[in-house]
Design goal:
Blueprint: E1 2-11, E2 14-20, E3 25-29, H1 36-48, H2 61-65, E4 72-80, E5 86-94, E6 102-109, E7 115-117, H3 121-126, H4 130-136, E8 138-139, H5 158-169, H6 176-190, H7 199-215, H8 218-285, H9 291-321, H10 332-371, H11 378-412, H12 420-433, H13 437-468, H14 477-515, H15 521-532, H16 535-541, H17 545-579, H18 587-644, E9 649-652, E10 658-661, E11 666-668, H19 674-692, E12 700-703, H20 711-723, E13 730-734, H21 737-745, E14 749-752
Helix pairs in contact: 5-18, 6-18, 7-18, 8-14, 8-15, 8-16, 8-17, 9-13, 9-14, 10-11, 13-14, 18-19, 18-20, 20-21
């Protein structure tokens, strides 16, 4: 699988970031704290989500990577599978202060539009759980995950134990031998075989006692607590609303006086504007153009246009009306041929796909028998050959049927067999319509004669109107009409605009006069000046009409909210008095019961997992020794040889002892340098990914994984990764310039974060 682009909407400290990737090696360069680890974790988030378990640092992945501003972790990846299909992988995780986390996952096939929701893309495409992916393809920072193979990290099994753990459990920090013993002991401590002892049994007894004690007082306690909390909240709300009401009362007391002064000024200005507008309207009314001018123009234009339309309609319809009538033939035989051909095509196509199943099964059986060195290879070969022959036969028949069907579709100008009946119906209707041709031809002739008479009258009227408006006649009568319409529209628009303004100003003046009736103008202006010098008055003077409306709504809302809050406060006080006092609170008991339930569920899961994990670890170690170690060793050796130029093989024996060998020497892991040890660790991870992921190869992510590798070998590492681009896509997050320069020299995709 190739990741084509990352689209980070909100993740960790990153917001609205797009990163375009290419096939092969991609180096993302950025300084410390620039978000490289967040971008790397974003890929894992889209495929598998974020864990809620606390890490060694104390914070879980969700706590670290849910953005604090948006309270979300969200984004999508555009990816392309090995078969060339392109998908959009979406994941959004929304945190809420008063509810559970909400998560949405969608896998969208961008070619077909098919959508899968609720399933992890990693499990959908790779078929492995999160732990396998992160332990093979997600190589974290070297300082955070110290591979014991380098001789730096210390575990109870030493380097040999680290290699065994990595290859059997995909986690180099798990010591297999001690893990098995520890799992066995822990299972016994959790629950005895008879079920009468152990931590789980004791917790169940305590939980039953807590529940019995709480049952009698839980309901009353909850009601008292809820009522008291609600009462305190409503009292605080009342105090806030009273303070807000006081502010609004002062603003509107000043606004009333300022509003009177504004009305006085507005009335004077309105009178002046009305006088000017009436003078302008009188000047327009004295012009030679009147209302009859527009009505006559419109009627003449309509008659001329109708005549032109009638001529066009006559010219268009005349060839059709001269066509002879035809008999309606029988089309049932043609319909039957198309339906039979369509059914045969679908049948052969279905058989073609059906033959692929035994063919693929035979190929898989042949591969299995071949790799298992079983001599019974003839059976899958025969089955595969027969299936292939049948597939070819069905394919040829299907192609012939499709070609025949395509010819019929082209003949009838249809796209599918379902359209044939509609095409036949249209044909029959078309042939039947020829019977009415004669009547239609006569109607068109009569309509054209009437339209010509109206046209002649309209043309004479247009000439008269153009003379009255002092407009020169044009050879194109429509140009003359457009010029007349423009004159008429300009005159009418100007008159309507002026009359509209007069009406608006007249209505406004009437309202202002009513509002100022009985007002002492001089006294009102003095009061307004005094009000504007106060704190609330200065705020009120800055309000426009929209601001005043909003302030009125806010005051009404405040007063309504205050009345409701006061009513609610009285009801809560009465209710709290009627409830009385609670002798014992069940809060602590509820907390203990919840903790016991969670602990019992956790311990039960752990008990079941212990037994299962113990058997799985033992079985995995034996299987790894016998079959997988040689393959992983060979693949890792190729990577080591290309990257170091010194060592040509990584050795892992049956007891999981690890070392590197050259032509002259063999060095065990405890004596390797820090950088060489890191390189060997990375090689094992890549080789393990090759072995684990057989069908869809995931992208391998390196987050500062080459920090201890010197500059000379970094070039070899980048060259080795670029040569393996057909196996995996690689994304290297780094703050080192030599890694970026080496990748750029090799023509790899480099991105500045």
């Amino acid at each position: 699988m190739i990741l084509k682009s990352l689209h980070i909407i909100s993740f960790g400290g990153l917001r609205n970031r797009d990163i375009d990737l290419s096939r092969g090696v991609n180096v993302i360069d950025g300084a410390n704290e620039s978000g490289k680890s967040s971008a790397a974790m974003f890929i894992k988030f889209v495929f598998y989500g974020l864990s809620s378990r606390a890490t060694k640092s104390g914070a879980s992945e969700r706590q670290r990577y849910i953005n604090r501003d948006t309270n979300q972790a969200s984004g999508f990846i555009i990816a392309q599978t090995s078969r060339g299909q392109q998908y959009r992988l979406e994941r959004t995780l929304i945190a809420s202060d008063d509810g559970p986390l909400r998560e949405r996952i969608r896998i969208i096939n961008q070619e077909t539009g098919e959508t899968v929701s609720g399933q992890n893309p990693g499990e959908y495409f790779f078929g492995v759980p999160e732990e396998v992916f992160t332990s093979t393809c997600f190589v974290a920072q070297a300082d955070a995950v110290k591979p014991t193979i380098t001789g730096i990290g210390k575990s109870t099994g030493g380097s040999k134990g680290a290699v065994e753990n990595l290859l059997t459990s995909a986690d180099e920090n798990v010591d297999i031998a001690r893990a098995v013993k520890k799992l066995d002991n822990e299972r016994r401590e959790l629950l005895y075989k008879n079920g009468n002892g152990g931590e789980i049994a004791e917790l169940k007894k305590k939980r039953a006692a807590f529940a019995e004690e709480m049952a009698s007082s839980a309901e009353l306690a909850a009601e008292i607590i809820n009522t008291s909390t609600s009462l305190e909240d409503i009292r605080q709300r009342i105090a806030e609303l009273e303070e807000t009401k006081k502010k609004y009362d002062g603003i509107f007391a000043a606004l009333d006086k300022i509003t009177v002064k504004r009305r006085i000024d507005a009335a004077d200005q309105t009178r002046e504007r009305i006088a000017k507008l009436k003078t302008a309207v009188a000047a327009i009314d004295d012009s030679p153009l009147g209302n009859d001018f527009e009505e006559t123009l419109l009627e003449a234009e309509r008659d001329i246009y109708d005549y032109d339309e009638e001529c066009i309609r006559y010219d268009e319809r005349l060839p059709e009306l001269s066509a002879p009538a035809e008999n309606v033939p029988d089309f049932e035989e043609t319909v039957d041929h198309i339906y039979h051909a369509s059914f045969a095509s679908r049948l052969m196509t279905g058989l073609c796909f059906g033959m692929l199943v035994p063919l693929l099964l035979a190929a898989g059986l042949f591969a299995f028998l071949y790799f298992m060195n079983i001599d019974a290879l003839l059976i899958p070969i025969v089955v595969g050959a027969v299936s292939l022959i049948l597939w070819i036969v069905f394919l040829i028949i299907a192609i012939k049927k499709r070609r025949y069907l395509r010819g019929l579709f082209e003949e009838w100008e249809i796209e599918s067999a379902d359209d044939i009946e509609l095409a036949v119906t249209d044909k029959i209707e078309h042939l039947s319509a020829n019977n009415a041709i004669a009547m239609e031809r006569e109607r068109l002739n009569e309509s054209l004669r009437a339209a010509k008479l109206r046209f002649d009258t309209a043309e004479a009227n247009i000439h008269s109107l153009a003379e009255a408006a002092n407009i020169e006649l044009s050879d194109d009568i429509y140009e003359t009409i457009d010029a007349l319409k423009q004159v008429c529209e300009n005159t009418k628009a100007e008159r309507d605009e002026l009359n509209g303004k007069i009406g608006n100003y007249t209505g406004r003046l009437e309202v202002l006069n009513e509002q100022l009736e009985g007002v002492d103008i001089a006294a009102a202006e003095l009061e307004a000046h005094t009000a504007m010098s106060s704190e609330y008055g200065a705020f009120a003077a800055g309000l426009d009409n929209a601001g005043i409306k909003n302030t009125i709504k806010e005051r009404e809302f405040t007063e309504g909210a205050l009345r409701s809050a006061q009513k609610r406060c009285s009801a809560l006080e009465e209710k709290l008095a009627s409830l009385g006092k609670l002798s014992h609170t069940p809060d602590q008991l509820a907390t203990l019961i919840d903790a016991a339930d969670r602990r019992i569920a956790e311990l039960t899961l752990r008990h079941d997992a212990c037994e299962l994990a113990r058997s799985a670890l033992i079985e995995a170690g034996e299987s790894m020794r016998s079959g997988v170690i040689p393959k992983i060793s060979e693949a890792a050796s190729q990577i080591i040889s290309g990257a170091t130029g010194k060592y040509n093989r990584l050795i892992i024996d049956g007891s999981f002892t690890c070392g590197l060998s050259s032509d002259t020497d063999t060095v065990t892991s405890e004596y390797l340098s820090h950088g060489t040890g890191d390189l060997a660790y990375v090689a094992l991870r890549i080789a393990l990914a090759d072995e684990v992921f057989r069908t869809e190869k995931p992208t391998i992510i390196f987050d500062e994984s080459f920090a201890h590798i010197d500059g000379a070998r970094i070039k070899n590492v980048m060259r080795m990764l670029s040569m393996r681009e057909s196996e995996h896509q690689y994304i290297v997050f780094t703050c080192r310039a030599d890694e970026t320069n080496a990748a750029r020299t090799l023509g790899c995709n480099t991105i500045q974060l």
